[in-house]
Design goal:
Layout lengths: L6 E10 L3 H12 L4 E4 L16 E2 L11 H11 L6 H23 L22 E2 L5 H15 L4 E2 L2 E9 L2 E9 L5 E11 L21 H9 L3 E2 L4 E8 L13 H4 L3 E3 L20 H13 L9 E4 L5 H7 L1 H11 L8 E10 L2 E2 L13 E3 L16 H23 L7 H12 L9 H15 L6 H15 L15 H25 L21 E8 L4 E8 L5 H21 L1
Helix pairs in contact: 1-4, 1-10, 2-3, 2-15, 3-4, 3-10, 5-14, 12-13, 12-14, 13-14
Length: 585
């Protein structure tokens, strides 16, 4: 049912994605007097933000007086294995207390100490207690607060809109095309500026903490087509603890807060095995190290019969568990009839977070395309090779706001809003090409892709596996032209699935190509054929789409030199660790 019909909408700034980053950006834009609209493809009350359970980081020092923004910077930069954007990390560390306090004042209602200050818990690899929280539902608490604020500001949110194309002419973005996921009616949103807040791509692995129809890499695909570069797409975090049963929800997150509140890991021999991987930090080690430890115990035969390890918090009393991690308690009761105050959980690694993403300018989160910005998980650079738990919720608040401010400044400086008939027609044509009968269905191909990514680009990989996976991805890609896509007035799911698959394939290909390029093991990126980190060569991997041949191109670039003041912080911290380790020995 080919069509070129659409309705037109106007706004100063268009935000794509109605999760935490998108909402915080829109709130800033509207607060500064500009018109803003938000588009989302999931219900606004249920974006991926609600799954960020454990907490949000800010160096208040409410419990550990020695904590500071400098220490938050050191922890994030070093545990990102030196390839994160130091400027982004510095801004996050400095600005987190203000933004966390702000969202609490708006109504997030974080846990408080007796003196009225925010309570803070330990999270893996943080030197001090700096993670503020609302039980184990912090992301939901933040989202609910942002939605309330957006409603007070009368910010329109259209949460059944699938954005299929960014409108770009001569290196300038001037809006987007979307269609209603129920009626299939198309809209063109003309805007001075566009902010992508579309999340990551971890649903592309068989075992994933993401749910259906989210995190399929559509933001990366939109950015590549617009002319942006992606950075470090090989850096995908596998959270140490995902559920393994029941099968239909395998991968569902078991928050790090369980370990933060005293949960311990055991193998099938009853051994508390983290002593063999990080005897100092044990279960509070970095996510990459705990994930590798769990993976190793399972792959070497010391796991459970269900392919897991045990996570046990039953040594804590039930009231403590119900206060600190109530959602996890209910999660296991409802899905397994397991009382975690009496018995251990079974957990295994699960694809959890995309640390790579769209390459952005640190200060404004603008891309190389004029008028196009990105914030949240879709943007790369902050986390380097390993994300510390609690930093993602800080990220959405800080850089959502910064992208909002930058888009306002951009909007106010331009002389006129661009239009281009040919660009709009191409956006229609890119939808129309799918609307036909065919021999292939998108859902089975998407499931095949998830199996491929788990098997050939999983927790531990090597060149042979990656090359096989790459060929299999390209085989599926060749079937796109034969998809069967049928829409009517009541449903256009076929079209949604087809576009999800197209984005998933290009995001997967980018990830595998980047993983092949990085011949070392660093943080979340583990290669069995290159088992050691190469500290002599610190670089980022960039991906761009060559529009002449529609092929992805990969390029390595040395990391930016960090400012002397920050370099001194890192050097002194490294020296302290060397001395400390010698004393331990």
């Amino acid at each position: 049912m080919e069509t070129y019909d659409h309705k037109s909408e106007l706004t100063n700034v268009l935000v794509i994605g109605c999760g935490g980053a998108g909402l915080r950006a829109a709130i800033e834009i509207k607060s500064q007097g500009l018109d803003v609209k938000i588009l989302g493809k999931r219900p606004k009350t249920d974006p991926h933000t609600v799954l960020a359970a454990g907490g949000v980081n800010a160096a208040f020092g409410n419990l550990d007086k020695a904590d500071s923004w400098e220490q938050h910077f050191i922890d994030t930069y070093l545990e990102g294995y030196g390839i994160g954007d130091a400027v982004q990390i510095e801004m996050m560390a400095k600005e987190a207390p203000t933004l966390v306090e702000e969202i609490d004042n708006w109504g997030a209602n974080f846990a408080k100490l007796d003196n009225g200050k925010l309570d803070q818990r330990f999270f893996g690899a943080h030197k001090f207690r700096r993670t503020c929280y609302s039980g184990d539902y912090t992301g939901y608490s933040i989202l609910k607060t942002l939605l309330k604020k957006a409603d007070e500001l009368n910010i329109p949110i259209f949460d059944s809109q699938y954005v299929s194309e960014l409108l770009v002419k001569d290196g300038t973005c001037f809006g987007a095309m979307s269609f209603d996921t129920i009626s299939s009616k198309r809209s063109i949103y003309f805007a001075d500026a566009v902010i992508l807040c579309t999340g990551g791509h971890t649903r592309l692995w068989k075992k994933s903490s993401s749910r259906k129809n989210e995190n399929t890499g559509d933001g990366y695909h939109l950015a590549l087509k617009a002319g942006c570069a992606l950075i470090d797409m090989e850096m995908v975090q596998f959270h140490p603890s995902g559920m393994v049963l029941p099968e239909e929800i395998a991968g569902t997150l078991v928050t790090e807060a369980v370990r933060g509140e005293g949960g311990m890991l055991f193998n099938n021999r009853g051994e508390r095995f983290m002593v063999n991987y990080d005897k100092e930090r044990m279960e509070l080690s970095t996510r990459d190290k705990v994930a590798i430890a769990n993976y190793t115990e399972i792959s070497e035969g010391r796991g459970t019969k269900n392919g897991a390890v045990y996570l046990d918090i039953s040594h804590k009393d039930r009231e403590f568990i119900m206060k600190k991690i109530p959602s996890i308690y209910r999660q296991f009761i409802e899905t397994q009839m397991l009382d975690i105050s009496k018995k251990p959980m079974e957990v295994a690694p699960t694809a959890h977070y995309s640390m790579g993403g769209i390459h952005v300018n640190a200060l404004e989160h603008c891309t190389t395309v004029n008028g196009l910005f990105a914030a949240g998980e879709v943007a790369g650079g902050l986390h380097g090779a390993n994300r510390l738990g609690g930093n993602s919720l800080a990220e959405i608040l800080i850089f959502g706001k910064r992208a909002g401010i930058a888009s306002v400044n951009y909007s106010r400086k331009i002389n006129y809003q661009l239009r281009c008939y040919e660009t709009v027609q191409r956006a229609h044509a890119n939808i129309n090409k799918f609307l036909k009968k065919g021999k292939e269905l998108a859902i089975p191909l998407q499931n095949d892709l998830r199996e491929i990514m788990w098997k050939y680009c999983g927790v531990v990989k090597n060149k042979d596996l990656l090359l096989i996976g790459l060929q299999k991805i390209r085989n599926i890609k060749s079937k796109l032209k034969n998809l069967d896509v049928r829409i009517d007035e009541t449903s256009c799911k076929d079209l949604v699935f087809a576009l999800d698959l197209e984005s998933s394939l290009i995001s997967s290909e980018s990830t595998v190509l980047s993983a092949i390029e990085r011949e070392e093991s660093r943080g979340a990126h583990q290669r069995s054929d290159f088992p050691k980190i190469n500290r002599e060569k610190n670089f980022n991997v960039f991906t761009k789409l060559n529009k002449n041949n529609d092929q992805l191109e990969i390029k390595k670039k040395p990391i930016k030199k960090i400012r002397q003041e920050l370099n001194d912080l890192v050097s002194n911290a490294k020296q302290d660790n060397i001395i400390k380790n010698k004393l331990l020995e």
